[in-house]
Request: fold
Amino acid sequence: MANKRMTFLQKLMEFCGMNPERVRLRWVTSAEASEFVHEISQFVEDIRKIGPNPLKTKEAA
Amino acid sequence: MGQKIREYVQGLLSEGKIKGFLGLRQEHGHVMPHLFCDPGDLEHMSLGDKDGPGDARYPLNQILIRVAAVYPHDTFAVLVRGCDERGLRELFKWQQLNEERVIPVGLGCPDELAKACECEKPFPDCLIDGPQGERADSQKVARIDGMDLEGRLAFWLAEFDRCIKCFGCRNVCPMCFCNECSLEEESLVGTGEIPPDNPAFHLTRAVHMVGRCIDCGLCEEACPGDIPLRTLYKKVAEIVREELGYRTGYTVEEKSPFNIIGGS
Reply:
């Protein structure tokens, strides 16, 4: 269900002009530290590629 | 159009099956909601326009919830179009109305109206009067789907920025029955500024329309800023249908997907 909610959110974001890759859902247990680090690092890297949030730049302007 | 409805309601009233019929009445050139309790009164009944459903519309189901709360043991009939019937079904499921105490009186919409609404089903199953019109695809959603991300964001922000946060969309909505509204929750939507915190304000409402919005279009009609809310909620309905396989208001049994905690 969480997965479906995420898909819903991503599609809605896309329709409103936001990059759906800005939100991500992953399952990582407390025993998987390296997995957690990997996911977060990857997410940070991907977000950097996407660039600044257009809604933030709107506020600054 | 209208005579069949008049006769049907007259029958219900004179047989004592209902305490009243919630419909529309024309008086001094104005159309307004009216609870008909006397069969003789029905000559002033209106369908929303001169001879069919038209622009003068009210959230009759919302009014019915209030009437039923005062007379919980009585049965009422209510004038419904395709959208209103979908609304009734959801209100039964959300336990806002008792199915056994409501008799829907169905009115089909003319083609012109169905097209203007881009309606999925412009007639109720409980059809008493009016045509069984054809469904129409949404060109408005398709137009936005055809834009790129940047264009869509610019489009929606320009639309949302006309919002004066009058809450008209929420207040007129026949499906907004919560006692506490997330839109008034400061931690979700900031306060003190016009236009409101956008897109948070409108997207919060859009998400809450999952399994509720029955595409009646009253929000868009009520909006003083002409924000295309209906187009936004049509897209919400489309995503829910495609991703979760749920169509709002088409059955009385199936529950809204976001209503089921831990469901699959």
In short: The mean pLDDT of chain B is 91. The interface with chain A takes residues 144-145, 147, 149-157, 199, 203, 206-207, 210, 232, 235-236, 239-240, 243-244, 257-258, 260, 262-264 of chain B (CB under 8 Å). The first strand of chain B starts at residue 20 and ends at 27. Strands of chain B lie at 20-27, 30-36, 45-46, 76-80, 102-107, 127-129.
